[in-house]
Design brief:
Number of domains: 1
Structural class: mainly alpha
Order of helices and strands: HHEEEHHHEEHEEHEEH
Strand order of the largest sheet: 4-6-7
Oligomer: single chain
Largest sheet: 3 strands, antiparallel
Number of helices: 8
Shape: elongated
């Protein structure tokens, strides 16, 4: 779990630098889909883009057509979700631009969209990387080393991700009738947007559209931590090492470990939400670099 946090912090730092310069300008680009955007909306779009579902795009000042905006509301494989990816790789299907009220997701849709993200092709090598570094740091020592130890760490990493994703994004939202989607604000400067993103750990929308305490996140992650800790993480055991043929390793199945895992998951989810909030700014900045006079082809 510690190594996963390091990777998440790295992603957050990657996003903070370009997003800070964009966010402090107080730019706000609404991407709510409309059938025929008005001229006033075109002027308000600082990137010169119309919504993605518009048939045409307004040419930029240099005569080139700007790159398409990131995925709009309802553009995902499940109605009312997106097909977006953080940094063009990591699934971001439950993040939406704009604050408009959308029809609630059914329980079936909640499970489907979580499954699409959890079992996405990019997740398998991602789990492998986390497991490899976890092994290099000898975390959860009871798994041992070698290929067997790596296989156990890979399975543990994958299991933690699956259980937490489904508990927070599907099981609890379905039972409690809460909306698992994250609605990007895109309002204000860096600190205001950061505060909004962090608050989403504790505040979410109900299926009715009204704000509610985010029981799905808080209790869903706690349940996931308990399930993973007490089901497949290592028990106490003896290991044979070059310096100690009978090394005793304590169990990871403890209340303290469960609390630590819960805390780590909440921290990771908070960092991830902050990255999601600034991703539209980062996306536009990266798109401008690749579509400018020097970077266009």
């Amino acid at each position: 779990m510690k190594i996963a946090m390091k990777f998440a912090v790295g992603i957050a730092l990657m996003s903070a630098v370009p997003a800070l310069s964009v966010g402090q300008q107080g730019s706000s680009t609404s991407s709510e889909p409309t059938a025929s955007p008005s001229p006033q909306q075109d002027k308000q779009d600082s990137s010169g883009q119309k919504p993605a579902d518009s048939a045409e795009q307004k040419p930029a000042a240099n005569g080139k057509t700007p790159p398409p905006a990131i995925e709009e509301v309802g553009a995902g494989k499940v109605a009312g979700t997106s097909n977006d990816r953080l940094f063009y790789t990591l699934p971001n299907f439950l993040s939406l631009q704009g604050q408009e009220k959308l029809p609630p997701l059914t329980a079936k849709d909640k499970f489907k969209v979580v499954a699409l993200g959890t079992f996405d092709y990019i997740e398998y090598p991602w789990w492998g990387i986390l497991a490899a570094i976890n092994q290099a740091e000898d975390n959860e020592q009871g798994y041992g080393q070698g290929w067997v130890g790596y296989a156990k760490r890979y399975g543990s990493t994958a299991g933690d991700s699956m259980v937490e994703n489904f508990m927070v994004g599907a099981v609890f939202p379905s039972v409690l009738h809460q909306d698992p989607r994250f609605y990007q604000s895109e309002r204000g400067g860096f600190w205001r947007k950061s505060g909004y993103a962090v608050s989403r750990i504790f505040v979410t929308r109900g299926d009715s559209g009204s704000p509610q305490f985010n029981f799905s996140e808080i209790f869903g992650s706690a349940t996931a931590a308990a399930i993973s800790t007490y089901s497949y993480h290592p028990r106490s055991t003896f290991l044979s090492t070059p310096t100690n043929p009978h090394l005793f390793v304590g169990s990871n199945r403890t209340l303290a470990q469960t609390a630590s895992t819960w805390e780590t998951q909440l921290t990771l989810d908070t960092i991830t939400i902050v990255v999601k909030e600034f991703w539209p700014d980062i996306h536009r900045k990266l798109s401008h670099k690749t579509s400018g006079p020097e970077g266009s082809h």
